[in-house]
Amino acid sequence: MIKTGNSKEVLRNMLFGNSEKVKKTQTKYHGKPVKGKNIETAMTINIYEAFFGTEKKISLKTAEGGLRSFTMTIPEGINQKEKIRLIGQGKEGENGGKPGDLIIEVNIKDDKKFKLKGTNIYTPIQITPWEAALGKRIKIKSIDEEESKIYIPQGAQSGDTVTIPGKGYKKKRQ
Q: What is the pTM of this model?
């Protein structure tokens, strides 16, 4: 007779099966619901898409190797590094738990013409040395394609900025 482990345990395993398997099965089917994990990712959009808002199609790989696609709305005036939460689009929950969320960090790419810094939009303009020395009124188009008249003050230096009120980045309502 060969004895392996606790005789009560050996007998229990013979009658009811391996206790570890029983515990795992019970936990799987009788455990508390567990919310699925969140998925975090990043997306890059251009300054026009951020300024005006847009819709973007997102495709994610599923655990089974397939693709899951959906359309999301990027609100106008979204800020650099702002996160959008898509509720229930993360990993599946366990034991009937709710799925996690998909969290997308938005990166805004500057354009050749417009650059975003905080809530200010910058655009370079070329003027001649005599226009800088004497000052001049010029017309420029803002990001919303409206034409604005600005005055370059007398004695302007390279790198100076001129502010056009009401033509900056849209501030979202909180």
A: 0.70
